[in-house]
C-alpha cells in the first residue's frame, strides 16, 4: 500500500438500510488503512443516522431533497466543498461514477463488477478494494458494526428490560416480521406458528416497530390478530433500534427476520440472526458468520437470478410464477422456509442453554 489518503469520499446512494450496512466493513477498513484521514460518507436517510456517532466517519452527507437528480447534485456539492483524493462508490446511476472520475481523485467506481453468485456482497466490496491495493488481506474478515453511545446503550438496556420477564428458561427471540417488500415476506401463518412453538419452549418473544425502507404494503400486520406470546418493543428510530438489538444480544437473543435492513442491523449490533431468504440468494446476500444461520427457500427456483435480483419476474410485484394466483402464502420460495427449520436454527444459536444474566441488566 502507498501513502495514506487524506481526503476520502464514500458514496452509497442505493437507498436501503441493508445496503448501507453491507458497505460498513469497507468504510471501516478504509479508515483503518488511512489513519487521520477525513472520511466523508454520502448516503440516504434514515440510514445516515447509523454513521453519525461512528469515530471512523468525519462527516455524513445526505441529498438535500427527494426530487429527480438529488443524488447527483449531492455528489457535485460534496466534490465542490472538498476535493477528495480517493472516492469509492457503490452507486452507478445518473452518471455518478463519471462525476467522481472527473474530479481527478483516485476512484473505485464499480464495487459490483463481475460478482460471483457465491460471494457475499460486503465481502465482494472488500475483495475489490484489496485488488485495488486500498486494504489489506486481514481486512477481508471485517464485519459490519454499528457504533453506539453510552447513553444509547443504557436506553436500549432499559427499554428491553421493561419488555422482558425478569427470569426465563431460554434466551429471548426477536421477530422482525415486516420485510418492507412483499416478495421478501414470510407467510403470516408461519410467523404465528413459530411464535407459539418458541413460547412453548420457554423463549420470551419480542417483536418491533421497525422503520420502513419502503412504503407500507397492502397487507396488514403479520401478527394480526396479535399473538399473546409476543411483547412489542415501543417505536424507535434506527439508532434506538440498534441499541435494543444490542441489549437483546447481551441477553443471548436470536433475531429472526427476512432479508431486510433491520435483520442486518441486528447482526451489526451484536445479535445472533436467523435470516429467511427466498428471492435473494443467501450465498450472496446472507449475513454469514458463526452467529448467523441463513436459510434458503426453494434453492432450485428456475426464476432466481442471484446477481441480478431486480430482473426476477417476482421482484417488484411479488407475483410468484410458482405460486397459485392469490395464494395467501405469497412467494413459493418464502413459504418453503419451514417453521421447523427456523426453530432448529434458533436452538442451535442459543446453544440450548439458559439465558445468560447480562451485566447492567435494567
TrEMBL record:
Note the PANTHER family from the entry. Answer: LIPOPOLYSACCHARIDE 1,2-N-ACETYLGLUCOSAMINETRANSFERASE-RELATED, TETRAACYLDISACCHARIDE 4'-KINASE-RELATED
Q: Which SUPFAM superfamilies match?
A: UDP-Glycosyltransferase/glycogen phosphorylase
Source organism? Microbispora triticiradicis
Name this protein carries in UniProt: Glycosyltransferase family 9 protein
Q: Is Transferase found in the keyword set?
A: yes
In its keyword annotation, does this UniProt entry include Transferase?
yes
Q: Which domain of life is it from?
A: Bacteria
Kindly give the InterPro entries that the UniProt entry links to this protein. Answer: Glyco_trans_9 (IPR002201), LPS_LOS_Heptosyltrfase (IPR051199)
Example GO CC term: the record gives: cytosol
Q: Which UniProt keywords apply?
A: Glycosyltransferase, Transferase
What Gene Ontology terms for biological process does this UniProt record contain?
lipopolysaccharide core region biosynthetic process
Q: Where is the signal peptide?
A: none
Q: Which GO terms describe its molecular function?
A: ADP-heptose-lipopolysaccharide heptosyltransferase activity
In Pfam terms, one family for this protein is Glyco_transf_9
Amino acid at each position: 500500500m502507498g501513502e495514506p489518503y487524506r481526503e476520502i469520499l464514500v458514496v452509497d446512494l442505493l437507498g436501503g438500510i441493508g445496503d448501507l450496512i453491507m458497505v460498513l466493513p469497507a468504510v471501516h477498513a478504509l479508515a483503518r488503512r488511512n489513519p487521520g484521514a477525513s472520511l466523508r460518507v454520502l448516503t440516504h436517510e434514515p440510514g445516515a443516522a447509523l454513521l453519525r456517532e461512528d469515530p471512523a466517519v468525519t462527516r455524513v452527507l445526505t441529498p438535500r431533497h427527494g426530487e429527480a437528480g438529488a443524488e447527483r447534485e449531492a455528489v457535485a456539492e460534496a466534490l465542490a466543498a472538498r476535493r477528495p483524493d480517493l472516492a469509492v462508490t457503490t452507486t452507478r446511476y445518473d452518471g455518478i461514477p463519471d462525476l467522481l472520475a472527473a474530479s481527478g481523485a483516485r476512484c473505485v467506481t464499480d464495487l459490483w463488477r463481475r460478482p460471483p453468485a457465491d460471494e457475499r456482497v460486503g465481502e465482494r466490496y472488500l475483495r475489490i478494494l484489496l485488488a485495488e491495493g486500498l486494504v489489506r488481506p486481514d481486512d477481508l474478515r471485517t464485519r459490519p458494526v454499528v457504533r453506539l453511545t453510552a447513553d444509547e446503550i443504557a436506553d436500549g438496556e432499559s427499554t428491553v428490560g421493561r419488555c422482558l420477564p425478569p427470569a426465563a428458561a431460554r434466551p429471548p427471540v426477536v421477530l422482525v416480521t415486516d420485510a418492507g417488500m412483499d416478495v421478501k415476506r414470510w407467510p403470516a401463518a408461519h410467523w404465528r406458528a413459530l411464535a407459539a412453538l418458541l413460547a412453548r419452549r420457554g423463549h420470551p418473544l419480542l417483536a418491533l416497530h421497525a422503520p420502513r425502507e419502503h412504503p407500507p404494503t397492502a397487507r396488514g400486520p403479520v401478527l394480526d390478530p396479535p399473538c399473546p406470546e409476543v411483547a412489542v418493543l415501543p417505536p424507535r428510530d434506527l439508532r434506538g433500534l440498534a441499541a435494543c438489538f444490542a441489549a437483546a444480544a447481551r441477553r443471548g437473543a436470536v433475531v429472526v427476520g427476512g432479508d431486510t435492513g433491520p435483520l442486518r442491523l441486528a447482526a451489526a449490533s451484536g445479535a445472533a440472526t436467523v435470516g429467511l431468504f427466498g428471492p435473494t440468494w443467501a450465498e450472496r446476500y446472507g449475513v454469514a458468520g458463526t452467529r448467523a444461520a441463513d436459510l434458503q427457500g426453494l434453492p432450485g427456483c428456475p426464476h432466481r437470478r442471484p446477481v441480478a435480483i431486480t430482473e426476477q419476474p417476482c421482484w417488484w410485484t411479488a407475483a410468484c410464477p410458482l405460486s397459485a394466483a392469490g395464494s395467501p402464502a405469497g412467494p413459493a420460495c418464502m413459504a418453503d422456509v419451514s417453521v421447523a427449520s427456523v426453530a432448529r436454527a434458533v436452538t442451535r444459536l442459543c446453544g440450548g442453554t439458559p439465558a445468560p444474566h447480562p451485566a447492567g441488566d435494567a
